[in-house]
Amino acid sequence: MTLLQENIISGCCSLKSTHKAQMEVLGLAIVVLLVSLSLLFVLQFVVNREDEQPRQIFTRDQLASTMVNSLLETTTSCADLTMTELLQDCAQQPLSDADCDRDGYTRIGTRAESCVYAEGITSQIFSDTLDAWDKKYEFTVKYGTEGLANIKKEGCPSEYDTGSALLPLVPGGPSIFVVLRVC
Amino acid sequence: MSKAQIQMTETIAILIIFFILVMFGIIFFSQIQRSTFEQRSTTAAGERAISTALRATFLPELVCTKGDNVEIRDCIDVTKLKAAAAVIKEHEDYYFDIFQYATVRVEQYYPVETTYLLYSRTRDGNPPNELTTKATTPVPVSLLDPFTGEHYFGVLFIEVYT
Questions:
Q1: pTM (predicted TM-score)
Q2: Contact yes or no for A40 and B28 at CB 8 A
Q3: What number is the ipTM of this complex?
């Protein structure tokens, strides 16, 4: 082999290896670029994730308690009884004596009229307020182990704020427990 | 392709990648800045809404009292409410210090639906519309009619304009 031929062969191979290295660097750059882009994408979601604002916490927190307080104070169309008195009468069934529709009977089906009215009025108020504001909630009234009313919209499986009230009925006996959970 | 051409292509590719990265960086940080600013202004408006809501809830012009002027919680006197709307309208500048740019109204839901508008002032002076940005805080209240002793169910709405 002549000297010229040797030079040509070595030049060709060194050029080939340089080209290969350049391609590798370019590939590496593309990988770095893709990784950076995905990182930016992930970071953007992390940064833009909206935390619960103080106003939302305040609204949810005070909504449950003020709703229960105001609801229990409300004078109903049933013999001018307040919601508290209606629930107290409901808890005394079958001895309830509230005749809401003044027809001489104190029962609607198997339930006391006061229970039916209390549940109906509460449903009406919640549909105008909590339902209209697209809030999920769970409202329960219990006397001992007996459930007097249960109104809910989707329920509250995890995070919620509670507004509650204890209504005394008989001295020394259990109280009526009113709970509203707003999610 | 000569060695010089390959090097030039490589330099151009690196520059393109560099500028793409710089561009993405600028877009990313500008978005962070913008979202931080928006978050701050939303938080500020929210805090103002809370303080305005608390002021409105405990406004002596509205709250129910019993005995020797003892305030009743979560209760608004209907007779005071009707009178307050006129008083607030007459002394709007005084109440601007309390409510600033906001709308305060009471909506009665039970037994009959009624609305009492107490105060309303927007930044542009026009009545608020659907596009007006606001932070609304609803506070359920008991509305007492002192003449009959009946309590109605209502909600005090405080809409603070941002």
A1: 0.73
A2: yes
A3: 0.74
